[in-house]
Task: inverse folding
């Protein structure tokens, strides 16, 4: 076992949250994580309200355990996604990319626990001031949209822990029991894991998308869009084109025109891993193959004891 | 106590190495760290051979314990610095910024233990192939010169540990017992700490340089020179100018002309913290004031037990 106050707060067995990854986190993945004792999450960021409602029902066919939904606040239809979560009585919502004041009170009145993804101390303290129940401190090693300040998990987590009173969940760079215990040592009360769960049988996604994660090495991802909003993805033809344009001083409009829309769906669902965007964390190099969700969670929790025994051995106690 | 095989290998009490920081790591700091049970290091990168010889003698007036020297391999006089270390019988040399094949054999024949600073798995395995005794896996959160791949400590350390057989030391983002235990959980056998030791009474450096570190928040540092060789330093007038030029697509030559020479000395020794370069790690936000070296080391080692007790509590064992 491995239990923290986050488990009691969210009604879960292990303090392991699966990140709500666009095009990846659908009902199979979400239900499998919750059934295995973690907190599964649906990616509201790639669903319209009706689809989210349907996905919530599909999750409930597979598990009676708590699960959550991620909602990017800046989306035009984010309020409608919040409405669905309230109507359907979802246990937990994680919000990101926007002002947490907007929906937190309304969701908490409906009994929803609210987590907010925060890439800096400033944004973490703002989230706490907005009343969220949990702060997710996410480092620049995480896949997908990251913070402008590019603060790493190792630097960010203890600094956030020192500045907020609510439980802190660490995200970015965690894929096994070593990263899990490291995050806990930094003061986190739980972890959010994305990329490792994207490389599971239950994740939605094209075979070539999952293969790209498995093949990626420690230096296989790159940050693009530093001027627009940094995103971490696997190096490919598209990232080379974006980086070349950025190196030549491309304007914001030129970059937006080059990138266009639908690039993540193109890679993740359609399997075009050269001109699509493959969101992926820097820890991908640790991922040697696809696994089942249950195996991922069992290995993280089961490996925690031996990691702690090794550390205790060093203290001679 | 906290003891790993690194302690036996280097003849030190605690697996804590002080980074060899240019203009900062002179005899007072180096001797104080070694006397307190860690491994002090002189910064060969800001010394000519005669000065290094003198500094080694000054360290030996203060301590009989082992200490080390950092040598950037690419420097024109690096071979002369190696000669000094061999002649003076220095225990440990850490090399960085260059090919570890160049000096490793010669130093080891003279009984010197060689560590090589490696910011990626590829460079770590090359260092091992060159025969080094220890690999220092340094993440992008570290101050000063960082790797082109910008891999974070959390991502890098376990990936390096899985690929090399020699002991791995974690560097970047570590300033207290939480970071120390986190690094050990990731599989490191020791830590290298820079910025926290720069903010000590014994470090060489202008009052305004040390104040800048203490004042910096989690988002107070920035990477500049991505095209030349990334360096992390505190945001100031100079970094704004460099970032503006980079954003406009400045060429390598234009950037080199803008930056010029002697910027680090200007900030560190002369106290010009606006047009000088203040090398500093991202963990600076955790540093609330200057301390003595002995206090820093006592707090890290003394705090390790409570961190482990908290983790063990979560397992219910």
Result:
């Amino acid at each position: 076992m491995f239990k923290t106050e986050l488990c009691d707060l969210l009604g879960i067995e292990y303090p392991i949250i699966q990140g709500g990854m666009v095009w990846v986190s659908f009902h199979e993945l979400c239900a499998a994580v919750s059934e295995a004792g973690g907190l599964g999450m649906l990616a509201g960021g790639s669903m319209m309200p009706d689809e989210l409602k349907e996905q919530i029902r599909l999750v409930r066919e597979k598990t009676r355990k708590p699960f959550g939904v991620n909602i990017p606040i800046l989306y035009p239809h984010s309020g409608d996604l919040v409405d669905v979560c309230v109507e359907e009585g979802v246990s937990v919502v994680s919000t990101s990319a926007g002002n947490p004041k907007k929906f937190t009170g309304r969701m908490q009145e409906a009994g929803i626990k609210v987590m907010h993804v925060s890439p800096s101390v400033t944004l973490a303290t703002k989230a706490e001031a907005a009343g969220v129940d949990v702060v997710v401190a996410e480092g620049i090693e995480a896949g997908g949209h990251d913070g402008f300040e590019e603060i790493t998990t190792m630097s960010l987590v203890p600094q956030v822990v020192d500045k907020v009173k609510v439980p802190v969940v660490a995200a970015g760079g965690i894929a096994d029991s070593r990263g899990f215990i490291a995050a806990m040592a930094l003061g986190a009360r739980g972890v959010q894991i994305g990329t490792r769960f994207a490389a599971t049988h239950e994740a939605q996604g094209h075979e070539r998308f999952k293969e790209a994660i498995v093949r990626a090495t420690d230096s296989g991802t790159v940050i693009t869009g530093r001027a627009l909003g940094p995103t971490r993805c696997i190096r490919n033809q598209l990232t080379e084109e974006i980086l070349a344009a950025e190196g030549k001083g491309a304007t914001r409009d030129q970059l937006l025109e080059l990138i266009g829309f639908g690039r993540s769906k193109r890679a993740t669902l359609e399997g075009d891993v050269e001109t699509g965007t493959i969101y992926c964390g820097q820890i991908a190099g640790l991922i040697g193959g696809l696994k089942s969700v249950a195996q991922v969670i069992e290995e993280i929790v089961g490996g925690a004891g031996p990691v702690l025994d090794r550390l205790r051995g060093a203290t001679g106690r």
